[in-house]
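Margin note: ligand = dioxothiomolybdenum(VI) ion.
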Amino acid sequence: MIGAPMTRVDGPAKVTGTAPYAFEHPVEHPAYVHPVQATVARGRVRNVDTAAAEALDGVLAVLTPGNAPRLASTEDRELAVLQSDEVAFRGQLVGAVVAETSEVARHAASLVEVTYEVHEHDAALRADRDDLYAPDKVNPSFPTDTEQGDVDAALAAAAVTVDETYTTPMEHNNPMEPHTTVAVWAGEELTLYDSTQGVHPVRKTLSSVLGVDPEHVRVIAPHVGGGFGSKGDQHAHLVLAALAARRTGGRPVKLALTRQQMFALVGYRTPTIQHVRLGADADGGLTAISVDVVEQTSRIKEFAEQTGLPARHLYAAANRRTTHRLAALDVPAPSWMRAPGECPGMFGPEVAMDELAGACGLDPVELRIRNEPEVDPDSGKPFSSRNLVACLRAGARRFGWDGGSRARRDGEWLTGMGVASSTYPVHALPGNSATIRYTADGRYRVEIGAADIGTGTWTTLTQIAADALGVEPDRVDLRIGDSALPPASVAGGSSGTISWGSTIVETAHVFRDKFGDDPGAGDEARGDMPANPDSERFAMRSFGAQFAEVRVHADTGEVAVSRLLGVFATGRIINARTARSQFLGGMTMGLSMALHEHSVLDERFGHVVNHDLAEYHIATNADVADIDAVWLDEADPHVNSLGAKGIGEIGIVGTAAAIANAAHAATGIRVRDLPITPDKLLR
Ligand code: MOS
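Resulting structure:
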């Protein structure tokens, strides 16, 4: 059962349109909310003239900083919605209209006249700013800086060095389903139908912000149309929906952000400036790895992307250093975007490795194999399993890397091949419980408040439960996506299936110990995620290798990825079908990052100008040619009872570097600043 390519349990409901997403949940006589956003990047709201909006037929209320209900906690300033007149970034919520229809709400919002006291703002990220600071930690709780040995001395003594700066731009998550919340108050009880990566995390945050007993907040999210991290943490619209529903006094409200609103309100991947220095002996053995990162955060809330992290774990070198410095700007707060840290943090170092291979006259695959560490270079602990070298070798064979030139000319097209490594940590998040109940119809009801954000949780948890109970999957009745179910951690950090799954396995053990294989109707057991005694003894990470073939038009610089192969070693695969979909999805998002994605922030206004899908380019079918993902059979007895490592994010890690390296092989032009647009490939 485990590993089988079981088709999606939720497939029929999805394709027949009966799987309810947040906005579609039927509620009694709903009203609709439309936000009003700040049009200045820094200042104060002087006055809000609501007269024209209120005069419109169908308008029920206009919320302003002056009249909005008060929150119990304003500690998280991103969530302190309408609690003060301060404007901290352009696009911040400064009001909202509640109306009979979404059309009236939207029109009325456009009639709200906000006047501002405008202060000078600063939205310019540069590495030479004099106000850069070191955060106390980087996301979620890693040390900001690390240093082993003497990097400067090692670089000075190295036979070969690379010393370059690489940049990745601001990027925005664009799940197909926008961020949506339906809020219903019944007295002091709040129900939210929310598009979220975690119902229990939403309950926790909202109950503390609103000052309501968590037992009085229920969050429901059976199906979610993508999140990629932007629905993993809580954002301002969620609080706005709850406040608006307070104002309607029991009438439910529905709020769906527009695509353009998402570009200011739900986080983004911070832009990064990565100064990478590598030192090696003449044979390509690394003696020094140094990564100094500068990136932005917001003035109201710190988010420190852990961009230096992957370089801490990937290759052996006696002298190593990573640092992170932040510029706090008048911009929205950055947040999670698929593989925060690892994704941008593998671009600079993995392009630098390609440059080092060139400088040493070595095959880039061979260079990486030569620098395989014995133990985790950062902690000195053994890896629970590490198969980077096997991934590189298998990928090289499969991709046709060896034997012959990796660059050729095909008429007007220059073709080249590139490679990069992938890595992602194994995260198991605490706070998970499950219940299993044998019901009168002879089925096992398995309950846990997990999330399926399109990844396949409905299916994989059904498989895991069936396997642990020793029954067919059709005898498992899984229930997820509701905070009334036993607590579950967020679908983030590629932790979901392993955290929830090992909790279900444990619960099944408890159940079978208690009731055996022939239970009676009503028998029920509860279990908690077991502690892993090996988690302190081993470094636990997934690894992979990404191979890309790129075609560049000699005259126009047009660039296309003709082939992409990912080979991954991520422990045991739970479902071959949904796993492949996760890998391919991650790689496609990496291709998108390599060639297209770039949120263009106009520093003069603090505003992302290409804030919709017409102008923020994302890879489409036409961009994805021959793409394949495979994995090695990797048995890891230490990671957890499933032997699985989590696969949601590693697919995006390293892809952009492999593509940049392939573009260099094709053209001889080294692009160190993403995205790789045609202008950068013209001499
Ligand atoms: Mo993912 S960025 O950890 O939700």
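The longest strand covers residues 286-298.
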